[in-house]
Design goal:
five-stranded parallel beta sheet; elongated; 9 helices; about 60% helix; about 250 residues; alpha/beta; two-stranded antiparallel sheet
């Protein structure tokens, strides 16, 4: 029974990576299910030989407990980080902000991705309720992109009826850090330094983004946009690894 459970979990993890890779950009979140699933599949397929090895030598015992500890630690960290991501991603931001910064993510050619479209739709909803707020679209041009993310976002917003004069373009950034740094510089040219700011990103990304903004001395609360449902497990896995890395590196 345990053997088949390992095989099933391994196949599910590897299958998830293969399926998601066919429809999404390859990143750590895409690969994580395969990384977690491959050892389980191998243990399941060679269950007798591997369990005998675990029991027959000190090296085997050490490897057994190393695997158990690694999976247990990751599972606990995942639950903890997922709780933080969920809480911050569903928080309600204050109304009447002076500006809304939309954090970019990958585009396909010259069109916004479904994830980015959901962020932009959330920004539009906030802007409609706060008609004086400026909207900063933030994102440079990456590999496989024909235009900057900011330009693709600007086109999307104008097609949805947002007035051009409300949109500011920040088209140099290549990371969340740069999203905030360059967007704040752009806003400082139009607004006072103490202007109230809101940013929009996908729900799982709000927690880390808020901490990045604070590390830069920028006070901004996040609006959590819905993600792409079938990518949610991969997004949370990738973000868990990112939160742990940023924490250990002293970046948040």
């Amino acid at each position: 029974m345990i053997r088949w459970a390992f095989i099933l979990l391994g196949i599910l993890g590897i299958g998830d990576t293969i399926l998601v890779s066919a429809y999404s950009n390859i990143n750590f979140g895409t690969l994580m299910p395969m990384i977690l699933g491959m050892p389980l599949l191998l243990i399941g397929l060679f269950y007798g030989k591997i369990t005998a090895f675990f029991a027959s030598s000190s090296l085997g015992m050490w490897l057994r407990w190393l695997l158990i500890t690694a999976y247990a630690v990751f599972f606990v960290l995942f639950l903890f980080c997922a709780a933080l991501m969920y809480r911050e991603g569903h928080a309600v931001p204050p109304a009447d902000a002076d500006a809304v910064i939309v954090l970019g993510c990958g585009i396909r050619g010259d069109r916004v991705s479904l994830t980015l479209a959901k962020r932009l739709d959330s920004a539009i909803a906030y802007a409609q309720e706060n008609p004086s707020a400026l909207i900063v679209v933030s994102g440079g041009m990456g590999a496989g992109e024909y235009i900057s993310e900011a330009e693709a976002m600007r086109r999307y917003l104008t097609e949805k009826g947002v007035a051009e004069e409300r949109i500011l373009m920040e088209d140099r950034s290549a990371s969340t850090y740069e999203n905030f740094i360059f967007s704040k510089k752009l806003l400082d040219e139009r607004l006072s330094e103490d202007a109230s700011l809101i940013f929009v990103t996908t729900r799982f990304h709000v927690f880390r983004s808020e901490r990045i903004a604070r590390s830069l001395g920028i006070h901004a609360e996040g609006i959590g946009a819905d993600g792409v449902g079938w990518l949610t497990p991969n997004d949370y896995l990738r973000e868990t690894a990112a939160i742990v890395y940023y924490f250990l590196a002293g970046r948040i």
